[in-house]
Amino acid sequence: MESSALAALSDDALMARYAEGDLIAFKELYERYERRVYGFCLRYLGDPDAAADLFQEVFKRVVDARREYRPRGRFASWIFTIAHRVCVDHARSRERAGALAARLADGTAQVQGEVEDRLARQAELQSLLSSLAREQRDVLLLSKYYGLSYREVAEIVGSTETAVKQKVYRALQTLRRSAQPAKALESG
Prior knowledge:
Blueprint: H1 3-7, H2 11-19, H3 23-45, H4 48-64, H5 75-97, H6 99-106, H7 116-130, H8 134-145, H9 150-157, H10 161-187
Helix pairs in contact: 2-3, 3-4, 3-5, 4-5, 5-9, 8-9, 8-10, 9-10
């Protein structure tokens, strides 16, 4: 099948084809999700090297689970569930080693090649996000940045839809309160 025809297929159809051995279908899925999954890992961890490693782990798990995959919802929910679990496991192991606290104290990830202004905004956003409780940061990123529904986010994080809505609301309120003093300093 040509790549243009594959591009028209749903994620679930591509995964089914991949389970049957179609490597081109996997390539299409990979291309659809590589930036989004890597970006999620990077925003979760704030470390480009660790994000690259975990990104590979996520796709390794997709490869390993290809024959067991059953569409029960959106493929995006499934792959972000994997990414979330991989990141949580990694963060827990880093916390035990004390490395997470050092990383957060050192600052946010440096994104090379971008203009200074954009780096400053990204650093401010990362700092604000890192000030949130992990649960709030998770649901906020999954729902607002990656566009997943509250129901999908609830499935990923193992919570209820109502709890996810509350956590997103509280996270946004916290971010607004944290961002206001910074804006006052800039304008003053």
